[in-house]
From TrEMBL:
Topology relative to the membrane: Multi-pass membrane protein
Residue ranges of every copy of the FAD-binding FR-type domain listed in the record: 228-328
InterPro entries: FAD-bd_FR_type, Fe3_Rdtase_TM_dom, FNR_nucleotide-bd, MRET, OxRdtase_FAD/NAD-bd, Riboflavin_synthase-like_b-brl
Residues passing through the membrane, by range: 25-47, 59-78, 99-122, 128-158, 170-190, 202-223
Keywords per UniProt: 2Fe-2S, FAD, Flavoprotein, Iron, Iron-sulfur, Membrane, Metal-binding, Oxidoreductase, Transmembrane, Transmembrane helix
Keyword Lipid biosynthesis in annotation: no
Top-level division of the source organism's lineage: Bacteria
Organism: Pseudonocardia adelaidensis
Entry annotated with the keyword Transmembrane: yes
Cellular compartments annotated: Membrane
Protein name: Ferredoxin reductase family protein
Cofactor: FAD
Gene3D superfamilies per UniProt: Nucleotide-binding domain of ferredoxin-NADP reductase (FNR) module (3.40.50.80), Translation factors (2.40.30.10)
CDD domains hit by this protein: FNR_like_3
């Protein structure tokens, strides 16, 4: 292992605990409380006016209401609402969206099965004949189409299938989910909700749907469009950092009004160069200064590889800023910033914005892979920070190299338990660091991890 240190006087870490719950916990509690409160209202209203034509259809209606509620939650989780995103983080919200999607698929299949069985029992018909009969009813057919699309999307979202797809392909397939929502809404409207006999219940149900759709359209459409119209982003510089890493500088109008923080990322599009569908999440690799934004990307896909050929003056369409990997989560003044590979991009930006004692651990296979190292060294000198570059392949040597083993991590940063720890890198590295932090008894509230797929693409 090769270790390079750029150092200044950090002094002893100063403990500054935040009073009360963290912003992330407050946002999670608010989200969970809102969803549970909605379920309570739905179940109370169902108990008053939810009986179907037989017991099986009654259960089918109950399941349908919960399937629709899960769909509402799914939309909120990916609405990219600034309040939730800045506190919980898109990576965690997306993970919850994924698991909610699987639960929704099973719930919809359960509902469909119960409907067929319920009507088969009601009219004493064979199951297949009942299914075909229902398919001839417009409202039921729309529901079947929505269910089929939803199950198909759930199948391609399985980890084994997802790994075989490019980001752009996976993203394009998920556009079909919007069609699912539309079909489901028309299906509910034509069928009549469970609360058809209660005007107040019907008003509640469609008001909640309206609010959910408004939140989704605001976060996914209105805010990105307004930001791009206001700022008119354009490329002003393309700088190769190494053979396979490039930095892109983007400027725009009134960037000081763009509420971006070091550690966050944007979803970047360069429509006239790569096409609208080619979009990737790239972290800011420099702290926003009100004049320019910078991404630094490694050529691992079509979009990122093409960045080197971006002409200066190209218009850019940015969605964001997104992410909770920021100083908003800090509970201590002292920080430990851990990066692996191109995961250095948000870490470098956070070091630039840092206040208080900071240590950076930069894990690379070789010194040639340590992009942005001169900038890190300069920032370390300016801010009195320490930068350790940990080079070498894990498991090689005698004893085997394990830079993030608990003993080695504690040797590098003896006061690790007194610091906020930010980790961004490949999954294997991130998992190794998090395991060691648990063994070293670093409080969970001081540990903040960013998924590598959202950090640098």
């Amino acid at each position: 292992m090769t270790t390079v240190v750029a150092t200044g006087e950090t002094g002893g870490p100063v403990s500054v605990r935040r009073a009360g719950l963290s912003p992330a916990v407050v946002a999670q509690v608010a989200l969970a409380a809102g969803f549970l409160a909605h379920l309570v209202v739905v179940e109370v209203l169902f108990a008053r006016a939810g009986a179907g034509e037989n017991s099986v259809l009654t259960v089918a209606k109950f399941v349908a209401l919960h399937a629709a509620s899960l769909m509402m939650l799914q939309l909120v989780l990916v609405a990219r609402l600034p309040y939730l995103d800045r506190r919980i983080g898109m990576d965690r919200l997306t993970r919850w969206h994924r698991w909610t999607g699987f639960a929704l698929a099973w719930t919809v299949l359960t509902h469909a099965t119960l409907v067929v069985l319920g009507y088969a029992a009601l009219y004493s018909m064979p199951v297949l004949a009942t299914f075909l009969s229902l398919a001839g009813v417009v409202a039921s057919l729309l529901g079947m189409c929505a269910a089929a699309i939803l199950v198909a999307i759930a199948a391609v979202s399985l980890r084994a299938a997802r790994r075989r797809m490019r980001y752009e392909t996976w993203h394009a397939l998920h556009i079909a989910l919007y069609l699912t929502v539309l079909l489901a809404l028309v299906h509910q409207g034509l069928e009549g909700t469970t609360f058809a006999s209660s005007p107040a219940a019907r008003a509640y149900w469609w008001t909640v749907w309206a609010l959910v759709l408004l939140a989704f359209l605001t976060g996914r459409v209105a805010l990105p469009v307004l930001r791009n119209v206001r700022h008119r982003f354009r490329v002003i510089g393309v700088v190769p950092e190494s053979d396979d890493v490039v930095s892109v500088y983007v400027a725009g109008r009134d960037l000081h009004r763009l509420d971006a923080r070091a550690g966050q990322f944007f979803i970047w599009r360069f429509p006239r160069h790569n096409g609208w569908w080619q979009a990737n999440p790239f972290s800011l690799s420099a702290a926003p200064d009100g004049r320019t934004l910078r991404l630094t990307a490694k050529a691992v896909g079509t979009t990122s590889a093409g960045l080197r050929q971006l002409p200066v003056g190209t218009r850019a369409f940015l969605e964001g800023p997104y992410g909770a990997f920021t100083a908003l989560q800090r509970t201590r003044q002292a920080t430990l910033l851990v990066a692996g590979g191109v995961g250095i991009t948000p870490i470098r930006a956070m070091l630039e914005e840092s206040t208080g004692p900071a240590v950076v651990l930069y894990r690379v296979h070789s010194m040639a892979d340590a992009v942005l190292l001169p900038e890190l060294r300069w920032l370390a000198g300016e801010r009195g920070a320490q930068v350790h570059v940990l080079a070498g392949r894990t498991g090689t040597g005698d004893p085997p190299l394990a830079p993030f083993a608990p003993a080695n991590l504690a040797a590098l940063v003896p006061d690790v338990a007194e610091r906020d720890v930010y980790v961004c890198g490949p999954p294997a590295m991130t998992d190794a660091v998090l395991r060691s932090l648990r063994e070293l008894r670093v409080p969970r509230g001081q540990v903040h991890a960013e998924r590598f797929s959202l950090a640098g693409g």
